[in-house]
Amino acid sequence: MPAAKSGKRTATRSRAHGAADRGGESHADVFACFAQDSPGRLSPDRLLKVLNEAGILRDDPRIAETIAHLDRGRPAPPATGPLLLTAEEFTAATRHNRGIIERAACGELAVPDFPALVADLQRIHEEVRADRSGAVASYIPQLARVDPEQFAISVCTVDGQRFSIGDADVNFCLQSVSKTVGYCLTLEEHGPDTVHRHVGREPSGQGFNELTFNKAGLPHNPMINAGAIMSCALIQRGLDAADRFDFVAETWKRLAGGRSVGFNNSVYLSERNTADRNFALGYSMRERGAFPPGTDLLATLEFYIQCCSIEVDTRQMAVAAASLANAGVCPLTEDPVFSAQTVRHCLSLMSSCGMYDFSGEFAFTIGLPAKSGVSGALMLVVPQLMGIAIWSPRLDGHGNSVRGIEVCRRLVDCYNVHTYDLLTGTGAETGKRDPRLKRHQSATEGIVGLCFAASRGDVNEIRRLAACNIPLDAADYDGRTALHLAAAEGHRSLVEYLLAKGVDPRPVDRWGGTPLDDANRSGHRDLARLLAEVTGTPRRPAP
Ligand code: GLN
User: Fold this and answer.
1) Using H for helix, E for strand and C for coil, what is the string for 449-502?
2) Ligand 1 pocket residue status of 308, Cβ below 6 Å
3) Of 51, 88, 142, 333, which sits with the fewest C-beta atoms within 10 Å of its C-beta?
């Protein structure tokens, strides 16, 4: 068994290290954030509740020392009364886990408004549950017998914020989702040049188990059966079958945050007995000379079927997806499982080929790398933000989970996570929000940007902000608007632009001042004339 890579990588990809130590003084402020309800005292339950709301769960290894410290401090029965921490005790309890706890308290994690994401996922789960269309895979009895009503969604951000809803503790087989990790392992071991001498990287445009090859006689890509069989031929060829399987299972475990994955032996046995198509693919590839010399075809096919029979729940799959979103580093354990290059290649092929012959449509409407499996699993990656796992066994005609696809659709409807949403922005026009923003951040930044640009007379910047749906008559805390500032600074073309855009010509700031007052006060007579005309205000006599 090759030594698994382990140890902490201190590269920038590891965000948990990123928090600056705020020092003793402001750690007291962090304490105050948690202890809002009872100043000076903090109950551990309140601390855990606030962390939980930010998506940092009790079993998160990054707060393990804090949890152990708090558990040690709990009064043993029959003693009564809640344990309350002083600021000093809080500092002592959290001293090993300050980075993550401070970032959670300060709303500095990848999805700062995590409760809003949770509420959306709860709503989406509730709405999509009503959809009973599609049918479970029936090619083996073990899949045909699965309760089709089951439905789980789990999310994990690149900062390890987690939430799950539905049947998130029920195990299911990876099936084709295993193809992602299989491909990554080949890249890590051989590099892309060698790997792609044996497998292409074009979508096939055909079903996942179609008996078809590219012009060079190779599988079209690693995300369909033929390509995944090829990946299995390339992974750890020097090891015996048991160690090769352990190597893959261990990799899933590391990606998923350290909890062991399962194996469904009956699925494996059933698949092996009905794998005519996969055997046909294997023999065809051998006939074409696609495999590296010395490949044991039967062992390779068995290894492929074993990989499909690995079991996880959506909690684990979401963490694995988040590890991909986080460039290969598991957000919970900081374990650098794959290199960023490997993940980049894998996400590229998931984007173009991950959803069988629905991949083009998925890239168009959802615009994110994803991989599905016939068990009803769907793993979705939002690079640098989060991983999402959806499981619901009823499949559509392409073999994708019906509810899985619908959840993706709805997520992309509410959030600007489609890769090219960066061109169309957020706000009223698109109806999309940016999950990366703090609560109220987009509105606040818009107004600050507007006032700053107005004071400089920067019409282009104001146009850009208008395109991002920032209301041009928005006012800051003092009631000052872009028109006040443009008038005060004498920026005539901006004043004209704003008036032409229909902003209120007579907004009143907190001191009762209008843009006309600003123009007068600053001696911009021509602007004062213009504003007086527009507002129908009698002109002041010239001084
Ligand atoms: N075990 C299945 C097969 O090889 C996996 C395919 C899938 O999930 N699409 O046919």
Assistant:
1) HHHHHHHHCCHHHHHHHHHCCCCCCCECCCCCEHHHHHHHHCCHHHHHHHHHCC
2) yes
3) 88
> Which residue has 């060829």 as its token pair?
237
Phi (first) and psi of residue 140, to 5 degrees? -135, 145
Q: Which CATH architecture has domain 118-414?
A: 3-Layer(aba) Sandwich (3.40)
| 3-state SS class at 163 | strand
Q: Which residues are catalytic?
A: 176, 179, 304, 356, 374
Domain 427-535 belongs in CATH node 2.60.120.10:
no
Task: Count Cβ atoms within 10 A of the Cβ of residue 144 and give its class: 0-12 exposed, 13-18 middle, 19 or more buried.
Answer: middle
Query: What is the CA(185)–ligand 1 centre distance, in A?
Result: 19
354 lines ligand 1 (CB under 6 A): no
Distance 340 CA to ligand 1 centre (A): 27
Mean pLDDT, rounded, for 209-234: 96
CA dihedral 312, 313, 318, 319 (to 10 degrees): -60
How much of the chain, in percent, has pLDDT values that exceed 70? Answer: 90
Q: Give, for ligand 1, the residue of 374, 378, 396 to mutate: max count of ligand atoms closer than 8 Å to Cβ.
A: 374
Ligand 1: nearest atom to the Cα of 175? 8
**Probe residue for ligand 1, chosen from 178, 180, 209 as the CB with the greatest number of ligand atoms within 8 Å:** 209
Domain locations in the chain?
Answer: 18-105, 118-414, 427-535
Q: CA-CA distance, 109 to 60, in Å (whole number)? A: 15
* Structure tokens, 115: 């409760």
Decide which of 41 and 171 is more confident.
171
**Residue 380 DSSP SS3:** strand
Encode pLDDT of 237-290 as tens digits.
999 999 999 999 999 999 999 999 999 999 999 999 999 999 999 999 999 999
| For residue 39, cis peptide bond before it (omega within 30 degrees of 0) | no
